[in-house]
Amino acid sequence: MSIFGGGGSSYSISNYSVAKFVSSGTTSFAARATQIAQPKDDDSEKNSTNVDVTSMPDNAVDARAKLTERYGDLDATSAKYKDDIEGFRKEIFDDLKFDRATLFQIASNDNGYFSKEEIKAAELVMEEQLEKALNKSDPDAEPTADNYLSLLEYLEKESSEEEKATFEWAINKASAQANYKRLSNGKESDLFSDDPVVSLLTKAHEDLFDAQKTNPDAKLDSMSAYDSAQYQWERNNNTYDAYTSPDAWWK
């Protein structure tokens, strides 16, 4: 069951210093930092060229360093856990206790510094954080309005600015808003966003609730407000030229 219910979508900084790995040898800092920034898996050689650590956020550098040290301690690589993500989390990932901002850097992997196992583990932990943020007393019970209010607070306080800029975050924020309204007789909260994209996605979720009364298989992305939200988000991010509406007359 999606933690958001009603067809909503679920998600489908350390102080550790890279300087610890910098010795007093003759190799340049940039070269040593570049070496640290590589994921230790079968793709590391392929990914080891043209790495610009100056474009890598500090928490991503720290995460890469902590993971690399962890592999060294256990004489392992992430590729060892290719078909065992739970084992990877238990033996490598979860003990490092990355916060959400760092997990987002790993999961988004904008610069290609993290392995498939690391990305998948980060995504799973982020999903579990949202589940926990609902603060349900009974894990098997359907979420209440108060649960969604708790989730809204978490999304606002714990998400990084980078995560908040994504369409996926807007979907999750809107889903929590729509479900809170649904379960509180239309009430809104001061935790609601006035962002136009979130507002459109909130309407898309509300339209989905109505559509599923007669068509249980209705999907969020088939709602017209969802299409409008995606167009608005693409336009806000100056990438809308590459966007094509699924209902466009010219198709």
TrEMBL record:
Protein name as catalogued: Uncharacterized protein
Organism the protein comes from: Pseudovibrio denitrificans
The organism's place on the tree of life at top rank: Bacteria
